[in-house]
């Protein structure tokens, strides 16, 4: 799917020259070497105008899993940002619905497993969130989220986190 949404120009150089677009949902991977884990997975939803974005992720920093929402007035790469991959555009009129869906994704207790048998963590929360957004037709995936996770052209340590 293509869009005529203008890029946020000043961000283009920050992510290997790829422009960050308004109203787009991105999967963002952060390196977590200090914690002995491969990556932390998050969703980044850019504003319809301006330079800001809202980060949605599931974290267990407090000892239990919680959905955390952070707003950033300007998007820029950090030292821990490994990857920023566009998932789809979210039309302005569906932004509130997307935020509601993300807020309602089930949070499981530490040590729990999701239906697939995988442990519940930031990655499985993200997969559930993207699946729900696709199911509600807020975004349109070109492939099933589980198939995307098994792509052979991605490094093993990203797909097996």
Structure characterization notes:
With about 160 residues, this protein is of the alpha+beta class. It has one domain. The protein is built from four helices and seven strands; from the N terminus they run βββββββαααα. The protein has helices at about 95-105, 120-135, 145-150, 155-160, and strands at about 5-10, 20, 25-30, 35-45, 55-60, 65-70, 80-90. The strands form two sheets. Strands 6-5-4-3-7 form a five-stranded antiparallel sheet, with helices on one face. A two-stranded antiparallel ribbon has the order 1-2. It is globular. The chain starts with 6 loop residues before the first strand and ends with a helix. Residues about 1-15 and about 150-160 have low confidence and may be disordered.
Concise structural overview:
By secondary structure, this protein is of the alpha+beta class.
Q: Major sheet: size, sense and barrel closure? A: 5 strands, antiparallel
Rounded to the nearest angstrom, the distance between the terminal CA atoms is: 28 Å
Quote the average pLDDT.
Answer: 79
Shape: globular
Number of extended strands = 7
Number of domains: 1
Q: Helicity range of the residues?
A: 10-25%
The percentage of residues in β strands lies in 25-35%
Radius of gyration: 15 Å
How are the strands of the largest sheet arranged?
Answer: 6-5-4-3-7
Lay out the secondary structure.
Layout: E1 7-8, E2 20-21, E3 24-32, E4 37-46, E5 53-59, E6 66-72, E7 81-89, H1 95-103, H2 122-135, H3 145-149, H4 156-159
Antiparallel strand pairs: 1-2, 3-4, 3-7, 4-5, 5-6
């Amino acid at each position: 799917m293509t869009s005529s949404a203008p890029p946020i120009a000043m961000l283009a150089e920050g992510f290997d020259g790829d422009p960050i677009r308004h109203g787009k949902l991105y999967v963002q991977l952060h390196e977590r070497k200090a914690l002995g884990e491969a990556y932390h997975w998050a969703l980044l939803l850019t504003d319809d105008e301006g330079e800001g974005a809202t980060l949605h992720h599931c974290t267990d920093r407090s000892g239990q899993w919680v959905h955390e929402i952070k707003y950033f007035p300007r998007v820029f790469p950090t030292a821990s940002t490994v990857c920023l991959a566009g998932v789809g555009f979210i039309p302005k009129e569906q932004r509130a619905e997307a935020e509601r869906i993300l807020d309602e994704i089930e949070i499981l207790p530490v040590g729990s497993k999701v239906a697939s048998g995988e442990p519940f963590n930031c990655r499985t929360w993200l997969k559930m969130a993207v699946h729900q957004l696709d199911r509600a037709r807020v975004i349109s995936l070109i492939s099933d989220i589980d198939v995307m996770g098994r792509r052979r052209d991605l490094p093993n340590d990203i797909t097996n986190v």
